[in-house]
Write a structure and sequence with these properties.
Length: 189
């Protein structure tokens, strides 16, 4: 024999280990057999919308809720919108149109912005963004205007929507107050 068999021992141990792993794997496959499920996935017991339809939420009484709305919370809620929208006067459009003056303004109020065909169809049905229309749109944009390009899921919390609408409204009102305060008194009347 020729000298040291150290490498032969190492290769033999590796080959023996691989053989044991293969034998154990095959033996455990024979002992523990699992059947594939009849249906893939898990059953989630969620009520159907039709069967367990919730009572439709009544629109807020805007005359009551707007004066008590939290404008700071509305501005904080607008932070979600800032990725796509701007709300400053004369501000540029982003992915979505500038929302300055949107409350009470016409649908598709930004000339030159590429609105979806669905929004043009909606404009024929409801030409202005009233409080109720904005509330419904912000709740679920894709449900209120099917086919809209806006991919935002919506805001489910009623108070957050009220605060946001009040804040958007306050942006235009603030400008009107500044504009009126700069006018001569004879022109105001």
């Amino acid at each position: 024999m020729s000298g040291d068999l150290k490498w032969n021992k190492i290769f033999g141990a590796a080959l023996g280990t691989a053989f044991v792993i293969l034998v154990v794997q095959q033996a455990s496959g024979l002992i523990y057999h699992s059947e594939p499920p009849e249906k893939m996935g898990y059953f989630v017991d969620a009520p159907d919308e039709v069967a367990g339809a919730e009572q439709a939420e009544l629109p807020p009484d805007w005359g009551t809720v707007l004066p008590t709305a939290d404008l700071a919370a509305g501005e904080a809620a607008f932070a979600r919108c800032q990725a796509c929208h701007n709300a400053t006067q004369g501000g540029a459009d982003g992915i979505g149109p500038n929302l300055y003056g949107v409350v009470g303004g016409p649908v598709m109020h930004r000339a030159g912005f590429a609105y979806s065909d669905a929004m043009a169809k909606h404009k024929a049905e409801a030409p202005t963004w009233g409080y109720d229309q904005l509330n419904s749109f912000i709740t679920a944009p894709a449900r209120y205007v099917p086919g809209t390009k806006m991919s935002f899921a919506g805001i489910r919390d009623t108070q957050t929507r009220i605060n946001l609408i009040a804040w958007l409204r306050s942006q235009a009102i603030r400008l009107i107050r500044v504009w009126v305060s700069r006018m001569p008194a004879k022109d105001i009347l």
